[in-house]
Amino acid sequence: MAEGSDAIQALIAQIARLPGLGPRSARRVVLALIRRRTGQMAQLAALMADVADRSCACIRCGNISESELCPICADPARATGELCVVEDVADLWALERARVFKGRYHVLGGTLSALDEIGPDELGIPRLLARVEAESLSEVILALNATIEGQTTAHYIAEALVPTGVAVTGLAQGVPIGGELDYLDDGTIGAALRARRAL
Amino acid sequence: MAEGSDAIQALIAQIARLPGLGPRSARRVVLALIRRRTGQMAQLAALMADVADRSCACIRCGNISESELCPICADPARATGELCVVEDVADLWALERARVFKGRYHVLGGTLSALDEIGPDELGIPRLLARVEAESLSEVILALNATIEGQTTAHYIAEALVPTGVAVTGLAQGVPIGGELDYLDDGTIGAALRARRAL
């Protein structure tokens, strides 16, 4: 009886496994939930069961969806011929929040990683190539993270796409909006200087 | 379609309301859950519904319980005559983890607060006094937080307990185990010096 019943301890252990949470914050969350047990906690449990039950991956792009095709793939207005390749659904959400991209996505679900034994087949890169061949695309934008893993994966995909003849682009690198040079790392300042543009 | 379906957005909004979480961390949590939707997510939803359904407050001490009396109040071995008054169930759990207190608890559920209109009646202090009178207690330990609110509440309760004749104690204040004087605040150093003891 250190931390409530077995069920409460199991709940704390499950919540402590979520990203950004640990045993201490999980205890706080569970206590806050139990305090609101008839309101928020019951609602949250129902909502979570509902989302777990209804979510699946879009068969075309890998986005989270409630039907075979996600709303973006199902929307004919987004057949612009531009395909944006992202690592993760979180990146897709970030791009959608920015409201600047009007085309469709392809979610890799990770990056190439020799250590984790994730090769091109595990990332579904053959499936991406087949998609580029099948849909009449004008441009593939590799919006992968500016990390070593992301850029290695972007290079691999760019090479693999050469035979298809599609235009392949990547996100610009430089000073972020609101960024102060004094606080930026050398790599970012170097990239921004190399990619300088006429004003 | 910025962040998935309406259900996913509702789930993110609910999780963002939990203590220590915000919109960004809630998005990360929800994406991690959806990735494990058939395993952890379904389990967590079921566990949460179960805990929400079964939890109630112990009618005697206010601890979280699955029955009328919590396991501590129901355990005759814990009728030591010592009653430990805490602000919150989190504090009760912290004391139980320390495994040093063998008596029973009384959970106030907060502190006196003129701003939030929480007076003695809202905190159930009359109920605490009745309990002290009814059970033959030898000591009441006021284990409230060492904050202004906690100490104000402790003073109020100590005064109210004078007529019952029970011994009233509070936690010792001083240097925490592993604490370095250089990093401690003036108040703690002052308290530790005033309460110095012979070695």
From TrEMBL, chains A, B:
Entry GO MF terms: DNA binding; zinc ion binding
Domain of life, per lineage: Bacteria
Domain Toprim per the UniProt entry, residue ranges: 81-176
SMART domains in UniProt: TOPRIM (SM00493)
Single Gene Ontology BP annotation: DNA recombination
SUPFAM superfamilies for the chain: Recombination protein RecR
Leader peptide range in chain numbering: none
Keywords per UniProt: DNA damage, DNA recombination, DNA repair, Metal-binding, Zinc, Zinc-finger
Annotated PROSITE patterns: TOPRIM
Zinc fingers typed C4-type, residue spans: 58-73
Similarity comment: Belongs to the RecR family.
Record-linked PANTHER family: RECOMBINATION PROTEIN RECR
Stated role: May play a role in DNA repair. It seems to be involved in an RecBC-independent recombinational process of DNA repair. It may act with RecF and RecO.
UniProt-recorded name of the protein: Recombination protein RecR
Source taxonomy: Bacteria, Pseudomonadati, Pseudomonadota, Alphaproteobacteria, Rhodobacterales
Gene that specifies this protein: recR
